Amino acid sequence: MEEVRRSFPEEYRRRGEDPALHAAPGGESFVDLQKRVIPAFDEILHEGEGPILIVGHAGVNRVLLTHFLGMPLGNLFRLGQDYACLNVIVSEKGLFRVHAMNLTTLAGCNAALFSESR
Questions:
Q1: Which of 61, 60, 59, 52 is nearest to 90 (CA)?
Q2: How many distinct structural domains can be found in the chain?
Q3: pLDDT at position 95, please?
Q4: Which residue has the higher pLDDT, 65 or 94?
Q5: What is the span of the domain harbouring residue 41?
Q6: Residue 116 — very low, low, confident or very high, per pLDDT cuts 50/70/90?
Q7: How far is CA 82 from the centre of its chain?
């Protein structure tokens, strides 16, 4: 990030001011990403049965999590998403609940996936 800040100071500043709407040249904003990700997620849900595994990068994960949590998209960087983490989203009567987020250890994943509170 330090290299990006030094090499593209204006772009870096603008992204910091409005992370949801800012798009790097040739890229897409998180609002644009959200417009692709939420319908794709809904389509995956309607095509599958039982537990579903979706693998995505931190941007996609954060867009989905802000959606499920009802958070403003501009707050997406308040959510940690470490490399190779696991988020567990549970659907109950058509509503989504974030059961666990940013799990990075096998013990944490096992606890979240097999707990009695699901």
A1: 52
A2: 1
A3: 87
A4: 65
A5: 2-114
A6: low
A7: 11
